[in-house]
Write a structure and sequence with these properties.
Elements: H1 3-16, H2 21-32, H3 41-50, H4 59-62, H5 67-77, H6 80-85, H7 88-110, E1 129-131, E2 134-136, H8 138-149, H9 179-191, E3 198-200, E4 205-208, H10 211-214, H11 223-227, H12 233-241, E5 245-248
Parallel strand pairs: 4-5
Antiparallel strand pairs: 1-2, 3-4
């Protein structure tokens, strides 16, 4: 929350007691536009309580907990005008957290389910969610906002589609402060996770997550070369030399449930 907004609210609040109904509504609007929690404390608490370090989710435990819906009400309720006024870091955190929270809600609404791909209508294309007052699908959040408008491709390593082969779901919220460091940390964790990506120098092969096949264009068509900067010195030199073939791993769409 910025200091000037706090000051504005402090100045407007006493006027509410003597304002006309129309003037009072302006005070309420000014307050509403200062109320979004950019620390994501509520969402952070959900993740810490229901997501293990390996990214597996306690969906069953969340069934009796209204906290996800409460958080998503705040995502829906913030105005599009306010979001437009936010910094790039604030927008990145907002859309990343919204995507993962709405993925949770997608699973909870369909529970019990063994794979997000079993959900109809399509879980990614169905524009059933409210984000900053606008109807959006999960694909809208990822492809139109994060990859489209913001050109931020490291979101691949924090957006989780509820499948076991997805990147490990962070068990803490993405926050605006230091967001680039967070994205770099999760990118490194993804590429160095040998269950998802593996370099076999003796065989001259690099085994990559299928994500890198689907979205290789986001990494200049050379995801293995992009991967190099996150690896140890020896592996980096091998990848930068380019003398290898790439194979893409099979994708396990089983639900990432505990």
């Amino acid at each position: 929350m910025t200091d000037y907004r706090l000051l504005l609210f402090a100045l407007l609040l006493p006027l509410a007691a003597i304002a006309t109904p129309g003037e009072a509504s302006l005070v309420r609007v000014a307050h509403a536009e200062t109320s979004f929690d950019h620390s994501y404390s509520a969402w952070d608490g959900i993740l810490r309580a229901h997501v293990r370090r390996d990214g597996m989710v306690d969906y069953k435990g969340l069934q009796s907990n209204a906290s996800v819906k409460t958080f998503l009400d705040s995502v829906a309720g913030v105005s599009s005008g306010e979001v437009a006024s936010w910094s790039r870091a604030q927008k990145l955190a907002f859309y990343c957290n919204a995507y993962n929270a709405y993925t949770f809600q997608t699973i909870l609404d369909a529970w019990p389910v063994n794979s997000i791909r079993d959900i109809k209508p399509d879980a990614w294309d169905n524009a059933r969610w409210k984000v900053a007052g606008q109807s959006m699908s999960l694909n809208d959040i990822e492809h139109k906002q994060l990859r489209g408008k913001m050109k931020e491709y490291r979101v691949h390593f924090v957006l989780v589609c509820a499948a076991k082969s997805c990147p490990v779901l962070p068990n803490k919220a993405i926050v605006p402060e230091g967001v680039d460091r967070q994205l770099e940390r999760y990118a490194r964790a993804f590429f160095t996770d040998t269950s998802r990506n593996r370099v076999d120098q003796s065989a001259g092969k690099v085994f990559l997550s299928k994500l890198m096949d689907w979205y290789g264009g986001d990494f200049n068509g050379a995801p293995a070369t992009y991967m190099a900067k996150y690896m140890d010195e020896d592996t980096r030199a091998f990848l930068e030399a380019g003398k290898f073939t790439v194979e893409f791993n099979e994708y396990d769409w089983s639900l990432n449930k505990q």
